[in-house]
From TrEMBL:
This is DUF1513 domain-containing protein. It comes from the Bacteria. InterPro entries: UCP028101. It holds the Pfam family DUF1513. It comes from Vibrio aquimaris.
Length: 363
């Protein structure tokens, strides 16, 4: 029976993905003549109403150019530095990732999980573009896996890295080619946590062969390390989901440089309470760190030098953020797009898109 359900699911996912091949992906918003001057710059998953989901390609202002239907709700997106490839990952416990051409909108390939596996919603390309790394898990144990896929070989899985913990969420590639993994430490049944009293989150580093070379943690084991970014150099920013006492509000952001200790970023207790125990997306420039909280309907800006919160802004369903040319672009589930140049200096437009979770930049 399990095999039949899995086969049916795969067939349904494939059928849904093929819609992206069979049906032209139409430009949105402006006339074709105007559209021709706008280039793809941002990609993120979006909601389109009840049980309808898509991945949206937008210009540098955050205004949509094309969208591709998704079989189910998406989460993170990986973008290739030289090919016109992007990968949308299903929200955990996800059953698929879909590779598409962000210029034409055509589907390149759809990968689905084996019966006892799922995707955690994130992945990243290697610096040389040869490999795609995806966070994966074993359903019955939440054993953490990094799936390694051969890009030029049609995204065939060629290796699996494991042995770093359970419940990995986001993986990023550092400039020195190491993988940094936000290991949540939570065993789940679907989305239900099963081991909150014994969870063991970590920030883990693997080398290119999958060997665990460094692993650090925070003092409070109820801080599930989930979302990551790096500053373009050697510093990792990690955002946490707090799974402890409801009326406790610890720091939800930390910085780490390989070989050093975790450094928690600072804010007042009532300011951390605004984030409702959850950090979604993070980005950093040379001076500033920005983190969003869709659950808290807000985002904050920290000084990278002092580690202190400089500004806290309300934003309904604050979702994705990317850093570009020294400033930030922030998305909202209510359709807003914020350009944040520095603390207290920003502008806002409406995109008409119900952005969901994360944004990625096209290189």
């Amino acid at each position: 029976m399990q095999q039949m359900v899995t086969d049916n699911t795969r067939r349904n996912l494939l059928k849904a993905a093929l819609v992206g091949i069979a049906v032209p992906v139409l430009p949105l918003g402006c006339a074709n003549k105007v559209m021709s001057t706008r280039k793809p710059a941002l990609i993120g998953c979006a909601l389109q109403g009840r049980d309808k989901y898509s991945v949206v390609i937008a210009d540098e202002q955050g205004l949509p150019l094309k969208q591709l239907p998704l079989p189910s709700r998406g989460h993170g997106v990986a973008t290739h530095k030289t090919l016109n490839h992007a990968v949308a990952f299903a929200r955990r416990p996800g059953q698929y990732f879909i590779v598409f051409d962000y210029i034409t909108g055509e589907t390149i390939t759809l990968k689905t999980t084996k019966p006892n596996r799922h995707y955690y919603g994130h992945g990243v390309y290697s610096n040389d573009g040869m490999w795609l790394y995806a966070t994966e898990g074993e359903r019955t144990t939440s054993r953490g896996i990094i799936g390694v896929y051969d890009v030029l070989g049609g995204y065939k899985k060629v290796a699996e890295f494991t042995g770093f913990g359970i419940g990995p969420h986001e993986v990023i590639v550092m400039p020195d080619d190491k993988l940094a993994i936000g290991v949540g430490g939570v065993h789940t049944d679907g989305r239900k946590p099963m081991n909150l009293s014994s969870m063991q989150p970590s920030l883990s580093y693997l080398d290119a062969t999958g060997e665990l070379v460094e692993q650090v943690s925070l003092p409070d084991h109820h801080l599930s390390i989930r979302h990551l970014a790096h500053d373009g150099s050697d510093t990792v920013l990690c955002g946490q989901q707090y799974r402890g006492e409801p009326d406790a509000y610890p720091s939800l952001l930390a910085m780490h440089t390989q070989g050093g200790e975790m450094r928690s970023l600072q804010a007042q207790l009532e300011q951390w309470a605004r984030f409702n125990h959850y950090i979604a997306s993070i980005a950093a420039t040379k001076e500033w760190i920005l983190a969003t909280s869709p659950r808290g309907n807000c985002y904050g800006i920290w000084s990278k030098q002092t580690g202190l919160l400089e500004e806290l802004n309300a934003l309904p369903d604050a979702s994705g953020v990317i850093a570009y040319a020294g400033y930030f672009k922030i998305s909202s589930g209510a359709g807003g797009v914020i350009t944040q140049y520095s603390p207290h200096k920003k502008n806002k437009i409406q995109s008409g898109i119900q952005w969901d979770n994360h944004w990625s930049r096209i290189f």
